[in-house]
Amino acid sequence: MKLKDTSFSVRAERAILFRALSYPNIIDLDEEPLEELSRLAKTAGANVIYTVIQKRAHIDPLYYIGKGKAQELQKIAVEMDADVLICDDNLTPAQVKNLEKIIEKKVIDRSELILDIFATRAKTHQAKLQVELAQLEYTKPRLKRMWTHLSRIEGGIGTRGPGEKQLEVDNRIVSRKIHDLKKRLGEIEKRQQRVVASRKEFSTVSIVGYTNAGKSTLMNALTDVDAMVEDKLFATLDTKTGICKLENSKNILISDTVGFIQKLPHYLVSSFKATLEETRNADILLHVADISSPHIHKQIESVNIVLKELGCEKKPTIIVLNKIDALKDESVIPLLKNRYKNCIVISAKTCQGIPALKQKIAEILEKRLLNIEISCSQENGKLIATLHENAHILNRTSDDRRLTFHLQIEDKFLSKLLKLHDDIQIKELVP
Length: 431
Ligand SMILES: Nc1nc2c(ncn2[C@@H]2O[C@H](COP(=O)(O)OP(=O)(O)OP(=O)(O)O)[C@@H](O)[C@H]2O)c(=O)[nH]1
Ligand SMILES: [Mg+2]
What we know:
Largest sheet: 6 strands, mixed
Number of strands: 14
Radius of gyration: 26 Å
CATH class of the largest domain: Alpha Beta
CATH architecture of the largest domain: 3-Layer(aba) Sandwich
Structural class: alpha/beta
Number of helices: 16
Low-confidence stretches: 1-11, 147-153
Oligomer: single chain
Bound molecules: guanosine-5'-triphosphate, magnesium ion
CATH topology of the largest domain: Rossmann fold
Shape: elongated
Helix content: 40-55%
Strand content: 15-25%
């Protein structure tokens, strides 16, 4: 089971985009509700020829949009010679099946589109395995549809998955394959954990954020790594790590990673766990957001949801409001600063605000509490007194000549201690 060779399958498909708007989304209506889906579709290689929005009180459990609207879509699809219909929400397997029956064209949902983009973008072995796993997780509950509906759907968006040749594939094979991929990715994850652990002497910072917010551009501004920057969604699928020198001449490790998007399918996040290992272990997160986007709040919120899913919601996080050079209305800056307390305004492109960002990183690192064990001679009264004053002592033991403290101490203070006293021994403890 291999990812299809995308150089042949990306043909410019004619796509109709559709979305049902129900409460509370109708009230909170964006100016262009299908703008992001349209960018995603174009990224996947489609030509968007028409968009349809249906306002309705409830999402239809059988057809997502109303049945009548689906019949209308069928006529439009024939008239406009569409190849594919793309829904902005995630559909149930039954909804896809029912819609395809009426419309008689390939219907794909948001997750399938994102998976498709990931499949075209995956370059490294690990990224490919991760995408393949996510595709299989997506396919599994839909195998029945694949059996009955796939025969008339050849090539193009949504068939780059392992599904297209899989009419003969049954649930058992898919499950076994999922198991096997998880095992292989688990091994990669363990290896990655070891690499991350071996770098523990460095403080680590992970760049996260909505897709296209400027994460890789920021990575390039902070380190000498050459990360790929593109005005495309999901340009980065792999983690890159580089060294950044702070003003206090401390070196830290910074990693760039895959972007997030709203309604990101859960299994995609979990498939990318190995790639996101750096994020899960980072001391600080830089959450990059595009200040020039009218959807900035929603994008920050979507990223926070994914961070929560990764168990990172409590990590010290700096909200990095990027692309200030592209902002037209500067009056929003005070409002944003008020809303996002720990934020900093920058332009990764012009490097405006980069020194201030580095300064902020240094400050947070210095304030970070370390869990350590310090042992010193019993005679070192001055050190013992300063420890009592400046650290939170959790435990204290003594043998004939030495005292051992288990304590929490600020990184900044520990550096000072090390300079002042040479008879202490320090061991960092895992909290
Ligand atoms: N005007 C302006 N454009 C920027 C800035 N930072 C990034 N960009 C542009 O935004 C686009 C996306 O930048 P990337 O750095 O690739 O964004 P990313 O967050 O890594 O995107 P993905 O990896 O696709 O999630 C590119 O066209 C960049 O040139 C900035 O400070 N100002
Ligand atoms: Mg990137």
